[in-house]
Amino acid sequence: MKKITLSNGETVEVKCLSCALTNGLVKPEGGVVIETEHFHAHQDVAYPIRGLIILASKRHIKCLDDLTQSERLDYIDVLARIRKAQRTALGIEHVYYFYNEDTTHHFHTWMVPRYEWMYNFGRSVESVRPVLLHARNEMNTKENVEEVKEAIDILTKELNK
Ligand SMILES: [Zn+2]
């Protein structure tokens, strides 16, 4: 079991955070941005960066090659739809994508928008962990969290119209 702290300070114990989210046991703050037959996308507001999205499979699998043919098609389709919405609705020019198979939870892709301020933490991939930690530790202000939630609403509308 894994103990997780929600953004509102409450803690819950779950076997797999991704399962808890895709089954609706844990509700992401700001809600689900889009749900398809096989995938579920939300923002983890623990990292308050406008437009950062986590796309998780509904099935508890670990590796890309565990995806069925129908899941693969759904995955690339919804990934590209979210990317397009980030561009058209939020003006996000570049995105970094991360996914590691040795995760404690299950198949999920981080879509991290690249903003100007992030270059203060380094040029490329090496800056991502410092950027995420900075966001979690220094950007949890009321104003910023409101902006992040506004972006979640914008993306949700764009993806479900
Ligand atoms: Zn799972």
From TrEMBL:
Superkingdom assignment: Bacteria
Alphabetical UniProt keywords: Hydrolase
InterPro entries: HIT-like_sf (IPR036265)
Gene3D superfamilies (alphabetical): HIT-like
Any GO MF annotation of the entry: hydrolase activity
Stated name of the protein: Diadenosine tetraphosphate hydrolase
Organism the protein comes from: Bacillus altitudinis
